[in-house]
Amino acid sequence: MNDLIITIGRQNGSGGREVGKKISEILGIKYYDQEIIAVTANESGLPVDEVVKEEERSKDSPLYFWGVSAPNPVFVAQSKAICDMAENGPAVFVGRCADYILRDRKNVVNVFVHAPLEDRMERSAKRNGIPIKEAAKRVQDKDRERAMYYQRYTGQMWGVVTGYHLSVNTGPIGIENAADLVIEYVRMMGYLD
Q1: pLDDT tens digits, 103-124
Q2: In this structure, is residue 193 part of a structural domain?
Q3: Angle 112-150-35 (CA atoms, 0-180°, nearest 5)?
């Protein structure tokens, strides 16, 4: 398990962040989500709030400007940060194209967490303290933004099952069972004793 990396892609409101946290707790390995932003800020020399703003802006920016590829320096710094963190031992990475960034490493298990829209709306409404109708719009908008972000930086479609080792629906089984399922899958792949 010395170099095991589990990446979690997820639909908004599916509980993917919680699944990742639970996996890291059970296995006793590092967990990276919002921490990636702080390390990216350090790598890029930008304040954290500027990294967050740039991440938000990049979701709508085109991949090419006047026919010339335009790499985003914040994404480049974020990619370096993720690669550096992956060198520090086993970990769970949530979002930020970590599955793609770490695609050439061995011992990486890519997981996509999803749930029915109704479940995601309820989770989002509760977590954000908003009405259910607003939560419906929020989860759909966030998923659209994630898809655009992923497409921009990877050239691939976000959430397509063939890009992941395992796809888990938290709707019928919940967060803890989903975490257990991922761990059992990782064990079956031979990465755990």
Answers
A1: 999 999 999 999 999 999 999 9
A2: no
A3: 75
**10 near 124, Cβ under 8 Å?**
no
For the whole model, what pTM was predicted?
0.91
181: CATH: 3.40.50.300
The answer to whether 10 touches 159, Cβ cutoff 8 Å, is no
Q: Which long-range contacts link 156-164 to residues 24+ away (Cβ below 8 Å)?
A: 156/100, 158/9, 159/9, 159/11, 159/112, 159/114, 161/112, 163/9, 163/99, 163/110, 163/112, 164/9, 164/99, 164/110, 164/111, 164/112
107 in any annotated domain: yes
Over residues 17-46, mean pLDDT: 94
Place of tokens 């991440």: 55
pLDDT in tens, 152-180: 889 899 999 999 999 999 999 999 999 99
Asked if residue 120 lies in contact with residue 13, where contact means CB atoms within 8 angstroms, the answer is: yes
What's the domain count of the chain?
1
